[in-house]
Design a protein that fits this description.
Aminopeptidase; binds coenzyme A
Length: about 140
């Protein structure tokens, strides 16, 4: 039976992994989704906990970040790796870290096309759809027991 994991997920800092984190966000948000560079990068990255997903050769395949106020963002998985559990593993890693830090509420601005993904993790829509970086979004939140 083949039970070898095909990818791994770890919590990292911007300071230690900036090139890997930048490369995945450049490919997914700036190149694939046409998000302007100026909107992609902000001063919060150095304050966030980041998730880095890598395949078994060490290639970067996904990332996400957690802001100090409980806001989850920049969730991105390479196209060829989608629907294989990478996004779930990254979100679980962030929610686990939030529990360890005794944070009580997770909030995010979901791209409207990804609402179904977050609903699987207990996030609920809040308010109306709005535009961010030219992409329809909706605020979602969940409490952490
Ligand atoms: C959204 C994203 C992070 C999901 O990552 P992923 O690795 O494909 O997700 P998973 O494979 O862990 O999917 C988990 C479950 O959610 C479902 N799912 C994944 N993407 C979905 C979507 N966009 N809408 C609805 N359901 C989705 C999967 O089918 C799977 O369902 P299952 O448990 O019934 O099999 C990924 O599609 C992505 O990076 N998209 C481009 C960037 C983006 O839009 N980011 C979101 C910013 S808010």
């Amino acid at each position: 039976m083949n039970s070898q994991p095909t990818f791994k997920v770890q919590l990292v800092t911007w300071e230690n992994e900036e090139p890997h984190l930048r490369s995945i966000r450049t490919r997914v948000f700036i190149i694939e989704q046409n998000v302007p560079e100026a909107m992609e990068w902000d001063e919060m990255d150095s304050l966030c906990v980041h998730v880095l997903a890598q395949d078994c050769q060490g290639n970067t395949i996904g990332t996400a970040r957690l802001l100090p106020d409980g806001h989850i963002g920049r969730m991105a998985v390479l196209k060829t790796w989608r629907k294989k559990g990478v996004g779930s593993a990254m979100l679980q890693a962030i929610l686990n870290e939030m529990r360890i830090r005794n944070m009580k509420q997770a909030v995010l601005h979901a791209q409207s096309s990804a609402v179904g993904f977050y609903e699987k993790f207990g996030f609920c829509k809040q308010g109306d759809e709005f535009m961010e970086a030219g992409i329809p979004h909706i605020k979602m939140a969940r409490t952490l027991p």
